[in-house]
Amino acid sequence: MNEISFRTTLYAGTNSLDRLVELQEEKIFIVTDPFIVESGMIDHVVRRIKQHANEYCVFSDIVPDPPVEKVVAGVKEMAEFKPTSIIAIGGGSAIDAAKAMKDFAMKIYHMDAIRVIVIPTTSGTGSEVTSFSVITDNEKNIKYPLVSDTLLPDEAILDAELVKTVPKTITADTGMDVLTHAIEAYVATGANDFSDALAEKAVRLVLRYLPLAYQHGEDIEAREKMHHASTLAGMAFNLAGLGINHSIAHACGGKLHIPHGRLNTIILPYVIEYNASLTDYRQREFSEAAMKYNELAKAIGLSPTNVRSGVKGLMKEIEQLRKKLNMPSSLKECGIDYNHFQKEKGALAEAALQDGCTNTNPIVPCKEDMESIIESMY
Question: Ranges for the Alcohol dehydrogenase iron-type/glycerol dehydrogenase GldA domain (predicted)?
Fold first, then answer.
């Protein structure tokens, strides 16, 4: 039996930020990063919540890959302020941190239910509609994915105006993260008709609009479509799960300090090849994952003659998109020293194996499988 539930209310389209004007006489804890404050983007929020006697406090000490210490500091401030609502504005780091803060505050300080409203300013993580939050342990150089329905935001505001000025490199990194979310969800063990529909739409939107958003940042239609694709992919993987692409990215991100979306881009073709389990050209029986990759290839307009050509065509489409976005295709291109990489390879494979996303991969990997994929990435 599948439980299909979408618990986050979405506000999208023109003037969607005006939803904040409806908040009245609340204590609002705003979680964000220094750039959102310094750029004045936070004014879009403050101006609206001040209209109806709302008291607010800003916690802006958020950094990429939010470490445990920052979350703890935020929880302490929340305990003192006692908010009725949290507004997270920023990229995935701010949203993940805010979700974790709310969860920890309620468990540690037994605070009453706190509404969480998230406003993504990048189109990538899908964190606005998921029960996931990724927190980093800097001491151990490990990323920990937290998974709980209590982490689901209550509301998400999708305003494309907030992403028009996102730099090209971040547009590419986050956009490829969207693609990875959708493709992994499509073959994950929890996939179903509902998640498949969401994932297929997300993939089609990314392939059409990501190059436009990358080349022409002011193209509001492209930005809006990518914003929607991010949320659709988030809804898909929240239903279906992810896989070893993200497991490896989590492990490598903590150790090698490469942006998450960039890592996903490098890994994705190798994971598709591994999950498809293609052997030789005489192969007549294919894995379920291979057949689904073939179906996805058809859904995006390719015309494969058989399952093998469908899988290969999908991989080629990803590699072509990567080139259009001027993204690296290997860890070597990211400047990773080979000796350092070899030293860390075993630990990376072990961390990926233990990552929660591995549980919903279509094939159960062993450590040697992980090492082989990681070795290919260099």
Answer: 13-159
